């Protein structure tokens, strides 16, 4: 089954989980952790999202983010892409650092905010990296206890829920966290509805209805799939017959992936529609789509060529309204 698009709107609360590629470490040294946190906070200042909590584990990260004017997809692309480049330069490595698409669970704010803050900060204890969460340096727990000179999370957004005076509120917050120190993995925080949403039935129904209503009018362009195929064939000098051939070839597979990304972003086509043209299933095309998007994070040259081709395809073309399309932000 193809993954459903993310639900994005101002005020949405997300529990973000991103794992290292093939479970490999995403942080090797203290400098790596500092680098990631520095980038996360700089983009926090730039994009204006609320960062309730974070925990950087050796091979994965947890973030609790409330998006505001800038959607989560843009926030995560900026943080993950810039950190991956920096990590690869520093350690003289290449390729993907993070595994596929990060998981972002849209959560009911009032019901799950504090529970998720606690759960995220207890990750090092569950992993036996610390006996007490205040002993783990790479989470926002210490900042909420006001033990850090330069906190890199929105301290007031959490402590204000425990009282007006931060000193007393921090004590109440710590007591709240330690109450659950013996709990193991909380699978209920991952049992989501519609592959994307965590909350009560009423919240889920309202959220999905909101998505349907608010995202039903994205503007695309009247560009045919054949025009996109021809443009990709010219740009990379790939014979059209190779693109359409059922035989497996590296160039043909790359071309179909590029066509899928362009068809969705330019014309609003679904992966089912694109796959039908190539006699491929929806899931197969969705996989190619995601794989190429991940390559963009590693290959800025390829990303520039994609953008240039995108602009060439839409130049002078009339717009169209594509109903019920998800507004993917790029």
Topology, pairings included?
Elements: E1 13-19, H1 30-47, E2 50-57, E3 60-66, H2 72-91, E4 103-107, H3 109-121, H4 123-126, H5 141-144, H6 155-159, H7 166-178, E5 197-198, H8 201-214, E6 218-221, H9 225-236, H10 240-244, H11 250-267, H12 271-277, H13 282-298, H14 300-314, E7 319-322
Parallel strand pairs: 4-5
Antiparallel strand pairs: 1-3, 1-4, 2-3, 6-7
Helix pairs in contact: 1-2, 9-11, 11-13, 11-14, 12-13, 13-14
Explain what this protein looks like in three dimensions.
- The chain has 330 residues and is an alpha+beta fold.
- The chain folds into two domains: 13-214, Alpha-Beta Plaits (2-Layer Sandwich), CATH 3.30.70.1290; 218-322, DnaA protein, C-terminal DNA-binding domain (Chromosomal Replication Initiator Protein Dnaa, Chain: A, Orthogonal Bundle).
- The protein has 14 helices and seven strands.
- The strands form two sheets. It has a five-stranded mixed beta sheet. The chain has a two-stranded antiparallel ribbon with strand order 6-7.
- It is elongated, with a radius of gyration of 22 Å.
- The model is unreliable at 321-330 (pLDDT under 50).
